[in-house]
Amino acid sequence: MDTDIRLIYDRPIGFTDVTTHYCPGCTHGVAHRLIAEVLEEMGELKNTIGVAPVGCSVFAYNYFDFDFVEAAHGRAPAMATGIKRTLPDKMVFTYQGDGDLASMGMGEIVAAAARGEQISVFFINNTNYGMTGGQMAPTTLPGQKTSSSPLGRDVETQGYPIRTAELMSSLDGASFVVRRSLHDARSIRNSKKAIRTAFEVQKQGLGFSFVELLSTCPTNWGMTPVNAREWLKEYMIPQYPIGDFKVSSAVEEIIKGG
Q1: Per-residue pLDDT tens digits for 72-124
Q2: Minimal CA–CA distance to 183: which of 249, 133, 124, 129?
Q3: What H or E segment, with its residue span, contains residue 207?
Q4: Rounded to whole angstroms, how far apart are CA atoms 238 and 235?
Q5: Helix segments in the chain, DSSP class H
Q6: Strand order in the sheet with 91-97
Q7: Of 40, 30, 66, nearest to 51 (Cα)?
Q8: Strand, coil or helix: 127
Q9: Closest CA to 53 of 105, 1, 126
């Protein structure tokens, strides 16, 4: 009998040894792991400062084993701007949900991108205000039911979803803007590559980088984790297509080299 046991999957050294508060099936934890793995692989863990949002990931600073600060609701890009301008050699990123970034903080994120701030932004889109009970968000799909739109989002009275990546790509200061997903293994691998590129863009001083990650919220969607992944694939991706929305020529060279 072969008794050789090999460890093939372990906690990244960029994580603290605690259990997260996220609901079963939530992909915040997946996004966290990808960021920690990339920073470890780049040798940047001790040189990084993250900015936590208000929302489900408000306690992100408890899970990453490097410097973190907490911003007021929607103000993570402004705080990250101040940190990066004061400490330009640091790797600075914001981690934000759709309520924090696309609603309360829309003015902040647009201004940061327009200025071409040398920060990386990771935007988690799960189509609802997860922390406060699943209310309708700027990203809620047409017809999608939430706790504040029980009959489904009515675009005639409540407007259309905001495609944030497309909006960011229209701003001159942005150099890398993409959308990826976290619903299956292939998508997760592609998300990790995008996160790595975003940090490389910052490291080389090439401008503002933005990675939108489509994420599941089984609890507020009222689904099992498996069904939530399928729902994301069937309904979210047609509304929020996966793709590269802005990649500058300098960033293309990074991607080719990687």
Answers
A1: 999 999 999 999 999 999 999 999 999 999 999 999 999 999 999 999 999 99
A2: 124
A3: none
A4: 6
A5: 28-42, 76-86, 98-99, 106-115, 155-158, 164-169, 185-203, 218-221, 225-231, 237-239, 249-257
A6: 67-70, 48-52, 91-97, 120-125, 208-214, 174-181, 243-247
A7: 66
A8: coil
A9: 105
Q: Is the pTM of this model over 0.70?
A: yes
d(CA 183, CA 203): 28
The Cα 198–Cα 254 span in angstroms is 10
Q: Is the dihedral of CA 38, 20, 74, 163 positive or negative?
A: positive
DSSP-assigned letter for residue 75: -
Instruction: Give the residue from 72, 85, 75, 73 showing the smallest Cα distance to 108.
Output: 75
| pLDDT tens per residue, range 197-249 | 999 999 999 999 999 999 999 999 999 999 999 999 999 999 999 999 999 99
3-state secondary structure of 58: helix
From residue 31, give the alpha-carbon distance in Å to each of 35, 36, 115, 152.
Answer: 6, 9, 26, 28
Does the pLDDT value for residue 258 go beyond 70?
Answer: no
- Distance between CA atoms of residues 18 and 27, nearest Å: 17
Question: pLDDT tens for residues 39-70?
Answer: 999 999 999 999 999 999 999 999 999 999 99
Phi, psi at residue 49, to the nearest 5°?
-130, 120
For 215, the token pair is 């994420």
Could you give all domains of the chain from N- to C-terminal order, each with its CATH number?
28-257 (3.40.50.970)
Instruction: Indicate the pLDDT class of residue 1, thresholds 50, 70 and 90.
Output: low
